[in-house]
């Protein structure tokens, strides 16, 4: 029973770590991509000596809108995978908690037995 408690806890910690690393890699890659594309646009604005704030604001709005639309499928896939992963994480958490509670109950009952 102790091995079971330890293995469920270890499975939970391992999965949580893998999920965290996957999430970090995803957003690191996404942020790099976004920053690179945005910097290219800002460089173009500067090269064209565009100074009209309203025009720059309009260009940036259009850029962001286009970026979101062109990456919608990627964002939706990420959200779906993240949701599934979190459901699994909750399941593993509940399983580990159940295992700890069961162990505590068994230990408590054994300590009550008359010797």
Look at the helices and sheets and give the structural class.
mainly alpha
Helix content: over 70%
- What is the succession of H and E elements? HHH
Shape: rod-shaped
> In whole angstroms, how far apart are the ends?
22 Å
- Could you list the spans in which at least 5 consecutive residues all have pLDDT below 50? none
Query: Could you tell me the radius of gyration in angstroms?
Result: 25 Å
Characterize the biggest β-sheet. none
Multimeric state of these chains?
Answer: single chain
Task: Give the mean pLDDT.
Answer: 90
The proportion of residues in beta strands is under 5%
Figure out the total of helices: 3
Number of strands: 0
Characterise the protein shown here.
The chain is mostly helical and about 120 residues long. It has three helices and no strands. It has helices at about 1-45, 55-70, 70-110. α1 packs antiparallel against α2 and α1 packs antiparallel against α3 (about 70-110). The longest helix is centred in the first third of the chain and has 46 residues, at about 1-45. The two termini are about 20 Å apart. The mean pLDDT is about 90.
């Amino acid at each position: 029973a102790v091995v079971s408690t330890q293995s469920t806890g270890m499975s939970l910690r391992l999965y949580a770590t893998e999920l965290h690393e996957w999430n970090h890699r995803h957003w690191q890659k996404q942020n790099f991509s976004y920053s690179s594309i945005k910097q290219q646009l800002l460089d173009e604005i500067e090269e064209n000596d565009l100074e009209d704030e309203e025009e720059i604001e309009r260009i940036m709005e259009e850029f962001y809108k286009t970026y979101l639309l062109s990456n919608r499928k990627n964002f939706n896939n990420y959200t779906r995978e993240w949701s599934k992963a979190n459901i699994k994480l909750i399941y593993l958490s509940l399983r580990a908690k159940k295992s700890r509670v069961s162990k505590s109950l068994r230990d408590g009952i054994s300590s009550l037995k008359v010797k």
